[in-house]
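Bit of a strange request maybe. I'm writing a small parser for structure token strings and I need a real example to test against, not something I typed by hand. Could someone generate the tokens for this chain?
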Amino acid sequence: MFGIFASPARKLRQSAAHWLELADKVLHFRRDILPAAEVAELQAQTAAVRRLLKEKAETAKLKLGLESLEEILRRTGGLHYPKSSLVENVEFFLVAAIVILGIRTYFVQPFKIPTNSMWPTYYGMTADNFPPETKPAPGLVAQGLRLAAFGAQRREVTAPRGGEVSADFISTSNGLTMAYTVKRGRNWFVIPTQVREYTFYVDGTPATVTVPLDFHDFDRVVVETFFGDRKGLSDHLRRLERSGKSVSHSTVTLNAQQGLRAQAYRLPLDRTVAAGDPIIRFDILTGDQLFVDRMSYHFVRPAVGQGFVFRTGQIPGIGQEQYYIKRLVGLPGDTLEIKNFTLYRNGAPITGSVAFEKNARQADSYVGYRNYRDLAEGRTMTVPPESYLALGDNSANSEDGRSWGYVPAKEAVGRPLFIYYPFTKRWGPAR
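Reply from user aminoacidic:
Good idea to test on real output. This should exercise your parser:
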């Protein structure tokens, strides 16, 4: 740190120590391929410099010794000396990669929240909507700032021609939602991934927009843009029914790989646009990105109430190898039940997290625990040995242990430590 204040003699001695390290490295790595004469010459010159250092020889003698050592290293060093800039860069990035992989594997791993199953504790991808007729969108400078601070990425659909806007809708357990098609896409223009493609029609001409597969806020954007809220959508549907206007229907393929198809209805959206007008416009805000402590679970058992990150490959109800984050609600031997939005553990309301208490009261946007599948009304789940039970905080919109069962203990990864991005009010220690 204070090397700039060292004397020239001290700096030369420090340099000599580095040259000796390099000479030893060349000798160890190349002894078996160098001619015996060069090995002997390298050993002799290395010993000479080491002796000069030990005897604290005057600067001029040490400098001559180093020049002689450098000359033999230039002839014998191979890839170790002199190094090309390419070799130095490769070594640097290789060492950096090894260090990063070691940290990720044994200590701390970055993790991105993809969905809103833990909302409002952790946010997945959400939309900031800018309805074209009621709310102006941020300009280019503001977009750049929002990208840096929130990971905001703009999506906009422009009318290919003038006319009435319509779209295909399907009926699901969550109500009427806009039809989509799962397609192949790319992250950062390089990494293969899957995306959802939504299609609007202007006087029959299609206009599409793609969003990440895990983005589930699109229907809210559509409802807000065209109808204001769900009540506005219901009123629009009633008006269509009273008008007697025929609505075309067809079978659409939602996901060809999974063979997922559905009956879709082409609905007018009560909006007429001119060519070039924006039909829909919003920003996708990145999900919370946090650091996960991978180390503590090697020494202490996970505790009920903690955020809980685990692998899914050995969970029969999921099968696919991914990382999930839920909240740990059950240890081996615990019995869980849901009654009146409250989660019960071993016959008493569960404790150990603020999220448990807020869900029980349906306070601060927590929706309360919902009866579902293995925890349907009147049903209980008892955690088997060497297993855990994990549920999402957003119980009404979470596929969790209620549907796919228990997490094997060996699949536990760690607990969330710190939300490092985006820079919102949630930034800081994880809850």
